[in-house]
Amino acid sequence: MISTDILIIGAGPTGLFTVFEAGLLKLKCHLIDALPQPGGQCSEIYPKKPIYDIPAYPEILAGDLTEKLLEQCKQFEPGFTLGERAETINKQEDGMFVVTTNKGTKHLAPVVAIAGGLGSFEPRKPLIDNIGNFEDKGVEYIIKDPEIYRNKRVVIAGGGDSALDWSIFLANVASSVTLVHRRNEFRGHLDSVEKVQELKNSGKISLITPAEITVINGSDNVESVEVTKKDEQPVIVKTDHFIPLFGLSPKLGPIANWGLEIEKNAIKVNNALDYQTNIPGIFAIGDVNTYPGKLKLILCGFHEATLMCQAAYQIINPGKKYVLKYTTVSGVHGFDGTSKTAPKAVVKKID
Amino acid sequence: MEESQDVKITIIDRDGVSHNVDAPIDMAMNLMEVVRVYELAPEGTIGICGGMAMCASCQCYVISDHELPEMQDDEEAMLSEAFYVKDNSRLGCQIQIIPDMEGLEVELAPES
To answer: Whole-angstrom Cα distance, residue B35 to residue B42?
Structure first.
C-alpha cells in the first residue's frame, strides 16, 4: 500500500503544481495517471504546441511547461503510479481513503485531489463489429511489452507517430510487419516516414495504402484480417496480432461512479471556499471541475490547486495554526534535504 | 441601419435534432465553438483538443453546398485517422464563421 498526504489523480499541469504548493505546507503527494508519462494533455496531445497565457511566459511549449513543473516540484519528491487508471475509492472508518487502480495498486491518503482534466486517456477503437471478442487475444490497442510480438506476424493500422514508430521497432522483432493506413500520406515525423519508406523498400515492412481493416477472423485468437482498398475486393492477410493505433481520447471513466456530483461531464465543487466536492476530503481541481464562471485554463488550475492545499492542510493538521509564508522570505525546503533561499541583503557600514 | 453581426446556421446534433442558431461573425469563432456556446453536444465530448485539429471530436458533415475554406494538411491528416469519416467530413474547429457561412447546414458526426 502506497501511503501519502495528498493523493492526486492526474499528473497534468494542475496535478504537478499541487505537489509544489503542498510541499510548501510540508505535505507529501503521490500522483496516479493512466498515461505512461506525466504532463497530461500537454505531453500526450500537443507537446510541441505553444501556450501563450501562462503568467510570465510570453510563449512556452506545452512539453516544456511539463518539464518546468516537474523541475519546480522535484525537491518535494512526488511519487508516481503511471500507466494505471484510478478505478475505485473507499473511505475507511478512520476517514482515510483507499484508491485502487485497474492494476490493483492501492493508495492510502487522508485527502484526495482529482486533477483529472477531461478524464483518463483511453485508446480509440476502430469500428469493427467483433473487435471486442479479440481484445487481448491478438488485438492490442497499446503496446506494453514488445517481446510478445517476437517472431509473430503483426498488422498495424494508423497513420500517426505511434503507428510509424512501432512499425519500425517491430520490423526487427516480429516475423512480419504489415502497416495499413487510410491514406498514402503519413502524419508522423519526417524521420519516421523516411525510415518506414526504407524498410518498405528493403521488404521488411509491407505497406498497404490507402486501405482499412474491415474484418477480423479467428476462432478464438486473431488468425487473419481483411484489408479493404476503396472500390476493391478485400484481401486476407494472415496474422497473429492486429494493433490498431488511432490515438487516445479522454473519458471521465470510473471517477463518474465515485458518488461525486457530476454536471456536464465535470465534478461540481465549492468554489467559494476550497474546491471540495460533495464528499468531504475529496477535492476536484483544474479542467475536471465545474462551478459558476469556471474557465478551463491551466492558470485557473494553478490557483485552484493552491487554495485546495490550504484546506488539505487543515484536514491533515486539524486546529493547527497556520500563516501564509512567502517563498521569497522563507525559501523552499525540499523533502530531499535541499533548500533554496533568497540571498541575505548586504549590510555594510559607510565610514 | 446597423449591419448584422450574425449568420444563421443549421446544426443537426448527434441525436438528429436540428437547431437553427445565430453565429456571430465578429468573435473569431469557429463552428466547433458555436456548437459549444449553444451546448449542442455535451461538454467533454467536443473540442477536446481545444481546436488544434488534433482530436476529431468536432467532426461534422457539411450538408449544404457552401464553398468552405480548403482543408489544411493537419485537418486532412486528422480526418484520415478519424472514424465515421465521409466525403463531406470536416473538422468544425477549422471552419471560421464568416459572412459567407449564411445558411450553412452541418450535422455532427457520432462521438468516438
So the answer is: 10
Closest partner residue to A160 (CB to CB) among B57, B81, B83 is B81
Give me the number of domains chain B comprises: 1
pLDDT in tens, B14-72: 999 999 999 999 888 999 999 999 999 998 899 988 898 888 999 999 999 999 999 99
CB proximity B65 to A under 8 Å:
no
Q: How far is CA A215 from CA A122, A226, A259, in A?
A: 22, 5, 39
The strand order across the sheet containing A266-268 reads: A262-263, A266-268, A289-290
In a domain, B94, yes or no: yes
Residue count of chain A, please give it: 351
Is the pLDDT confidence value at A258 over 80?
yes
pTM over 0.80: yes
Q: How many CB pairs under 8 A join A and B?
A: 56
State the residue range of the domain holding B77.
6-108
Nearest to A31, CA basis, from A6, A67, A60: A6
Q: Domain A2-121+249-340: which CATH class? A: alpha beta
Q: How close B3 gets to chain A, by Cα (Å)?
A: 31
Is A187 within 8 Å of B57 when comparing Cβ atoms? no
Residue B1 lies in a domain: no
Domains A2-121+249-340 and A131-246 share a fold: yes
Beta carbons within 8 Å of B68's beta carbon, 6+ residues apart: B62, B90, B95
* B80: chain A residues, CB-CB within 8 Å: 159, 181-183, 185, 187
Contact list, A266 vs chain B (CB under 8 Å): 43-44
Where does A131-246 sit in CATH, by number?
A: 3.50.50.60
Boundaries of every domain in chain A: 2-121+249-340, 131-246
User: Which residue from A45, A127, A159 is facing B80, i.e. has the nearest CB?
Assistant: A159
Number of Cβ within 10 Å of residue A20's Cβ equals: 22
Cα distances (angstroms) measured from residue A167 to each of A8, A23, A159, A175, A180: 35, 43, 11, 12, 10
Min Cα–Cα distance to chain B from A18, Å: 23
Select from A49, A249, A264 the Cβ nearest to the Cβ of B42.
A264
Res B3: pLDDT: 59
Does the beta carbon of B112 lie under 8 angstroms from any beta carbon of chain A?
A: yes
CATH number of the CATH domain containing B29: 3.10.20.30
